[in-house]
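Q: Joint fold for the lines below.
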Amino acid sequence: MSEMLPGTRIQRKNRRIILRAALEVFSRHGFRGSTVDQIAAEAGLSKPNVLYYFDSKEAIHETLLTDLLGTWIAPLREIDPAGDPQEEILAYVRRKVQMSRDFPCESRLFANEILQGAPRIEGFIRGELKTLVDEKARLIRAWAASGRINDLDPYHLIFSIWALTQHYADFDAQIRMLRDDDSEPLDGAEAHLLMLFRRLLAP
Amino acid sequence: MSEMLPGTRIQRKNRRIILRAALEVFSRHGFRGSTVDQIAAEAGLSKPNVLYYFDSKEAIHETLLTDLLGTWIAPLREIDPAGDPQEEILAYVRRKVQMSRDFPCESRLFANEILQGAPRIEGFIRGELKTLVDEKARLIRAWAASGRINDLDPYHLIFSIWALTQHYADFDAQIRMLRDDDSEPLDGAEAHLLMLFRRLLAP
DNA sequence: AACAATCTTGACTGGATGGTCAACTCTGGT
DNA sequence: ACCAGAGTTGACCATCCAGTCAAGATTGTT
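A: Joint structure:
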């Protein structure tokens, strides 16, 4: 039998179930607004059972956040200095749209943290994220200097991509209420955003 | 003596102080995450004193939200069908940037509500806001049909304006942590956003 | 000054909530 | 079948928190 993951089969299964349920609850109500009872109910377990697998509510939250951060910056990291500038940035937009579609809860969990002033992930933002953003900003500036894309502030460009893509996950409730049909808002969004950034980036 | 506002001088003063303090607290921690004690401390009053001026924590929150909604849609309402299409939309962007600068707490309070699924303001969104958005969407579509601006989905245009402008208020903490200098991020943002929408709207 | 109305607060209550524990059940290996 | 360890939970505790209340302090009016 493989020794890949720690814990028994049941441990692995229940920890996964709890994290899934906690993500749903935390992403909607924030840390303080969520209760262990809610998480337990969502997971289909009893409260003491949830606390058998995690030391505390705080520990569940921290696990979720830590797991999240890695996947959160992966799309930005994949921007290839050797690729075509416009295509690389548009591909990044596509990856971010995809993340809003596939991981809306994760997006809201992140948004909740930032809204509160980012106390739990300040280290990540000032460290790993800032290093990466600075690096990609230099790259974009170099691309602009070579005349292959419109010359714009790379930080504001990155913030614009974040704002526009994450908005469709974070403000999903509002967007749905403002639509007549019940089509997926993100379907039209991808085309709209690609058009927007194509125009913005054209030299 | 004027009878403009209800209550005594002290009542008006303290209600204002409490609402100001509550806005600060609620906008950071959300409704469930905030305590009356926090609000009282921020206001420099005792907890029972806060509850002397408002029936409940819920009542404070509701007052804030109701006060907010009116000012929140005013900038959109001001778009003038008789004006120049591009200038009208750019002026709307400018007003929204101004709101993020002047009322960041209000923006975060709103964002918190939407993140939670907008349970308290669903009526407002489906009613007053939707009516207004639909009206302005028709206007923008007519403008596009007349060839005076780029032909794009008016709903996605409006969502883009909201996403980009509110991002600077809602994600302020992150943006500050990613900057080296300590200049006001919104200074550069306004120029960036106006450039972005000028390019997007060009026919 | 005197009085009534308004304002303020320390001490309290009841319910919610995070976390514990002892007793119980289930699982897998022999 | 048996057993040791893993998994589960009802009952419980301590703390936090919204809201109450009665008693005292302040204010405005005469």
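Q: Anything notable?
A: Residues 8, 10-11, 14, 45-49, 52 of chain B lie near DNA strand C (CB under 10 Å from a C1'). Chain B touches chain A through 50 residues (CB under 8 Å).
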